[in-house]
């Protein structure tokens, strides 16, 4: 497994080792011991145990986010695309952080098999770049409806460079999310 820091030191790109031959390929998508030891080696905190896996399927142009949960129900997320392609975004919403309101965005797809580690204290969203994009993510906290919050996906204070598509398909809830003030 290769781990690369992003422009926000706590958000990591994880590239699993993939073994390929004429039959196909194999990879270990998660190993808690390796993941935790790699974070510790980077001087980053070991996250809470992953307690929930989520899987969504989206059409091309579906934009979901930017979502987060308030403490004590905040969630760290280990995200990946298992089919299709998505532009994935993490936004630092930790008020005392030197990277407050900075974002990281990258393409995750079924070819590059990259994953993104997004710790607690970040808002998260993604844009499906292909039909039938399957997004899979592990969370360190359970979904808690009363703690769920969102930020408007195109808030100008965030300057997220979303890929330009002809249109976006966005839920009413995400279209009506509050702007940062």
TrEMBL record:
The keyword ATP-binding does not apply. Transmembrane segments: none annotated. It catalyses: dTDP-4-dehydro-6-deoxy-alpha-D-glucose = dTDP-4-dehydro-beta-L-rhamnose. It is an enzyme of class 5 (isomerase). Keywords: Isomerase. Its EC number is 5.1.3.13. It comes from the Bacteria. Pathway: Carbohydrate biosynthesis; dTDP-L-rhamnose biosynthesis. GO terms for molecular function: dTDP-4-dehydrorhamnose 3,5-epimerase activity. The keyword Protein biosynthesis does not apply. CDD domains: cupin_RmlC (cd00438). Catalyzes the epimerization of the C3' and C5'positions of dTDP-6-deoxy-D-xylo-4-hexulose, forming dTDP-6-deoxy-L-lyxo-4-hexulose. Homodimer. Belongs to the dTDP-4-dehydrorhamnose 3,5-epimerase family. This is dTDP-4-dehydrorhamnose 3,5-epimerase. It comes from Pseudomonas saxonica.
